Amino acid sequence: MGLKMDLHIHSTCSDGTMTPVELVRKYYQEEYGLIALTDHDGIDGVKTAQIAGEALGISVISGIELGTELPDGPELHILGYYIDIGNPALNETLAELRKTRAERNRKLLDVLRSMGYNLTEEDLKQRPDQVYVGKPNFALALQKKGYVESPEDAFAPGKFLESPEAKAVRRERITAQKAIELINGAGGIASLAHPMKIKGIGEKGSEDFFHRLEEIVKQLKKAGLKGLECFHPSATHEQGIALVKLAEKYKLHVTEGSDYHGPEFEPHQ
To answer: Residue 129: which pLDDT band, with cuts at 50, 70 and 90?
Structure first.
């Protein structure tokens, strides 16, 4: 196998459209040597992916992506690698997060209905046994009902899921510090996901943006952050290099990932 790696992948156990086994097969066929399944707020697909990885001879890291926020600031996503998926504290928190996400989804459905998009909870499920429902599932439902041509259209600025009404629907999140603590407590390595996607810290890529990002990294490093996702579709090559320099300055692992959600969401995530 080659040395290609992708450390940020989503399956049907969160808001991706391919099963863990399908993903492992896809990456094996594309000659990747190392991947991490990092579903949102859940670890249900990890074991299956690892079994498939062992069968095919591709290394699959146990991973997760936790949606968090800073007490006084923006929303951040924290990736966890090499976590013990049986860790009690982690599983207890994930059970709580499932409840808050379900509540958010109900409110978001109400908002979309009030805007004239008649969706039901059943429309949000792409398969019968689906437990997790995230915004990409809303996007797929809007496409299926003919309200948008592609899932990407559901995220058009100011419309649908990006309308002021929809964006006002927020769910309770754990703090970034708590997420890092949970990942470290489960024997894992915490990495800050897609820094260039962080909102509310200035114009993307500007001097002010990078200055405020550095303040966040400094803060999270103290809390036990060990990595920075420097290479991601949201970062240009130049921005990726700037992020690598930031990672080196704070002695953080450089991680990379495609944030792959399935063919329906290619090429842009």
So the answer is: confident
> What does the pLDDT read at residue 22?
97
3-state SS track over the chain:
CCCEEEEEECCCCCCCCCCHHHHHHHHHHCCEEEEEECCECCCCCHHHHHHHHHHHCCEEEEEEEEEEECCCCCEEEEEEECCCCCCHHHHHHHHHHHHHHHHHHHHHHHHHHHCCCCCCCHHHCCCCCCCCCCHHHHHHHHHHCCCCCCHHHHHCCCCHHHCHHHHCCCCCCEEHHHHHHHHHHCCCEEEECCHHHCCCCCCCCCHHHHHHHHHHHHHHHHHCCCEEEEECCCCCHHHHHHHHHHHHHCCCEEEECCCECCHHHCCCC
Min mean pLDDT across 9-13, 56-60, 125-129, 204-208 is at 125-129
**Residue holding tokens 């992708």?**
6
pLDDT band (50, 70, 90) for residue 266:
low
| pTM for this entry | 0.89
Q: Which of 59, 53, 63 is nearest to 14 (CA)?
A: 63
C-alpha 47 chain-centroid distance:
19
Phi and psi at residue 79, to the nearest 5°: -90, 140
Residue 142's nearest CA partner among 173, 166, 169 is: 166
CA dihedral 6, 12, 18, 23 (to 10 degrees): 40
